[in-house]
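User: I'll paste a sequence; please echo it back and then give the predicted structure.

Assistant: Echoing your sequence first, then the prediction.
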Amino acid sequence: MCGIVGYLGPKNPKDVIMTGLKALEYRGYDSAGVSILNNGAFKRVRAEGKLSNLSEKLAKEEFTGHLGIGHTRWATHGKPSERNAHPHCVGNISLVHNGIIENYMLLREELVKDGAVIESDTDSELVAHLLDRQLRITPDLLQSVLAVLPRLVGAYAIVCVNVNQPDTMVAFKNGPPLIVGVGADAMYVASDVQAIVGYTKKVVYLDDGEVVQVQGTGYKVFSASGKATDRPTDKPVVEINWTADVASKGGFPHFMAKEIFEQPRAVAQAIQPHINLSKTSVELYELGLDVKALAEVERIFIVACGSSYYTGLVGEYMIERLARVPVECDIASEFRYRHPVLPKNSLFISISQSGETADTLAAVRLAKQAGVKVLSICNVRRSSIDREADGHLYMNAGTEVGVASTKAFSATLSLLNLFSIAMAKAKGRLTESEEQDYVRQIQAAPAQIETVLNLDKFFKEGADKLKGYRGFLYLGRGVHFPIAMEGALKLKELAYMHAEGYAAGEMKHGPLAL
């Protein structure tokens, strides 16, 4: 996912924007850029490659403005290059965009016929052209945005500024996340809280189909289908309760190592709110479903992507074994395309560390349309999936910076264990003593993980022995089969080596032939 940071305030926009982009650097990108309204004109600096390349260019420039936007890009339309990097500046408009404009070919043909000179290969620049053209008809940026929005098909989070409105940013959301930060003397717009948490802990989460006008030290939210003269939507400010200390590696060589060794604490934080210590029992206080509602559940659907999908497969084994409720676990991107049948009294469980996984969010909305209750397991409160869900289980793992999931994976497995116990208890399939035994085992998990992590010297020796091999096969049976697939995924993500996870009983169907 690309990164967006916008700033309006008394500080140097360059410094605030670059700090925000660096906080989002872990997400991956191929180019970056900044555009600042400087003495009545946009001053844009872009660079291919790392943010350090952009920083070197910015160090040679002087900025005097108080309004700016910045972006880290992961190429979709157009190759990675400075020419295709954001922000895009067209006439009086400067703009950054996350997402994909699906009807970009039609828009491009229309704009070229209208005489537009298109400089990049991106779909994003086309939106800037549409807005600049509309400004000639309706000089107000908000009015122009509301006029252009019906022309856009696809998923987008866009922030734009008008050279003639030096105290205004307008942003609009349809899919990718977008938030507004409210400071004491400044305003922020970003794709992720992490970009601005060092400056403010007061944020407004935008929903799909919303447009926000940021002016001075205030904001107004409108419906994308409305008019600038409509009464603004009442959107509350949310106070977030975490800090920017995630930028520290805590003495570890990289975030990945830090987060691996944070797993004992992450698991403890995940389970602690849901265990009644006096009874040694499970109490899922934020589940949103009481015992009666759980008892009425006849089928469970678990939908997720990547590592979260593998935790869901583990959950499938656990729930069916303990609660004897049939479970289907699907990859979110495939779920919608098989025309799923969601019977009455089904429960839909979505798993997403960020709470913003696009395919999982789309599957959640499909389930809600079918009238099925949705339970969200996520790590980010007030994320898009969290806001859509009827019930919640929070990982409480802290921000996960590493691209490969570690502590969130372990925290999710812990929550699925607790949910399995709660479901079995609601179904009358678990005695009090059996529940207490399971809870004690879960409570022992953080210490057991700590013991395993103390074997890191053994792991290093093993890696040294295996480093010359070109392919790896991970085997597992039962609940360990999805763990094998997760192990193979980790090797692919981190070592860029070929690896496959296989059911142990299927070795003769493929692996042995190799």
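The domain at 248-454 is CATH 3.40.50.10490 (Rossmann fold). Residues 407-426 form the longest helix (20 residues).
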